[in-house]
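Section 3.1: Structural characterization of target chains.
Under the original work plan, the team committed to producing a structural model for every single-chain target entering the pipeline before any wet-lab resources were allocated. The record below documents one such target. The sequence was received from the expression subgroup and is listed exactly as submitted; it comprises 448 residues.
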Amino acid sequence: MIVTGKHLPRRTFLRGLGAAVALPWLDAMVPAFAAPAQKKTPVRLVFGYVPNGMMMRDWTPKGVGKDFEFSRILKPLEPFREDVLILTGLHHRNGEGSGGDHARASATYLTGVAPKRVSDLAAIELGISVDQIAAQAIGSRTRLPSLELGCEATRSVGACDGGFSCAYMNNMSFRDATTPVPPETNPRAVFERLYGSFATDPDPKVRERLNHNRKSMLDFISADTERLTARLGAGDRQKLDEYLTSLRDIEKRIARAEKDDQDPTPAMDKPLGVPSDFLEHAALNNDMLAIALQADLTRVASLIYAKEASTRSYPELGFADAHHPLTHHRGRAELIEKATKIQCHHLAQFASLVKKLKAMQEGEGTVLDHSMLVYGSSMSDPNAHLHYNVPCVLVGRGDGSIKPGRHVVYPGIETPQTNLWLTLLDKMGVQAEKLGDSTGKVDHLTDL
C-alpha cells in the first residue's frame, strides 16, 4: 500500500510516559515499489522445553518422510502438518553419567556440554548455550537480545540433583561457562521488560493500591496511536487494532492474577502475581512471546513449561499425581497413562503458540513462516533416564530455509542434537563451528 509521506521505519515505537510499544510488521513499513530484498523479514529461533523425558511409544510417529502418522502426544500439531518436521534419532551423549540425570538433562540440552560438580555450589562450569550464541550475534538488532520464559519457580543456589548445583537443573540458557540466564516466571516482569517499567512494590497492600490506580499502558500511548492510525490504510489499521487489543488483554489477565494472589507469606518461592493455574500461566507466556516476536522485540527465545524433576501436578487432567514420580512408572500401565496425559497436555500448550504465530500475517507470509520453533526434552525414556533418541520436533520454515511436513530418522547413535543446533544457527546467518559435543551439521532439513 502507499502511505502519504515516507514509509514507516521497521523500528517505529508508540511512546508515552514509561512505555514504548514496538509495532508488528505493517504494509506501511515497505515502500510501494520496494525491491524484494527490502521486504525481507527477520528469522526467529525459539526453544520450548519439557522435563522428565518422554513416553517415546506415544511420541514417535509411524512412517517416515511425508507419509507419517501423528502419534498420540504429537496429535495437537496435526492441524499444522505442513509446518512440522519431526526429527528422530538425535542424542545427548554428554547428558549421560552417574547420578544427577535431571541436572545433566537441562544443562546439556542447549550447550551439549557435560556439567561439572564443583565444591562451591554457587558456581558452575559448563558452556555457552545455542540461544545465547544467537543472542550475542544478532541481539543488538532488537530491544531484547533474548527472552527466557518459565512456568515454574526456580532457584540457582544449593544442590538439587546428584550433588550438582541447582543452577544446572533449573536453567537451560547459559551466557558463558559460568553464567546462567534464568527463565522469568513473573508475567508482570516480562510485560514491563517488553513494553515499559511501571511502579511495583513487594508489599501486597501497596501493590494492590498501585494495581487499582494503574492505567493501561495503552492510555499512555493514545496520542501516538491516534497520530499513527491517521497515516495507515484500512488493512494496517485493523492489524494495529488487533495487536493493541491483544496487549490490553494480556494486561488485564496479569492484573487479575495479581488480584487473585492472596499469598501472605513472603518467604514462598512463588513471586506475587504468578498465576497458580498452569494453563493460564502457559497461555500468558505464549501470548507475550508471540507479540514479542511479531513486534521484533526479540528474535531469540526459550520457554520452559516446567523445570527438570518437576513435581507439579495437573488437577485439570483429573488426577493429582506429581509429574516426576509418574515417569518412574516401573512398567505400571496406570502410571504410564497419567504421565502420557501430562505430556500431551504440555504439547497442547506449545501447539497453541504455533497457532498464534501462524495466524499473524507478516509480509507475504506469517510469523511462523519466518520462525524456527523447537520443542522437546533432553531425555527419552524417563524410567531409565536415557539421553539418546530424544524427542524433537521443529516447527516453521525459517523464511524458506526449511522444508517441513516430514518425519526424518537419523540412524544409529551417531548424530548429536547439537549438530541440529549448529544448523539452525546457520539458517539465522550466525556462524559457529562447534557447540559442545557437535560433530558437524545435520542434513535433511531442506531435502524433499
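The CA atoms of residues 63 and 142 lie 41 Å apart.
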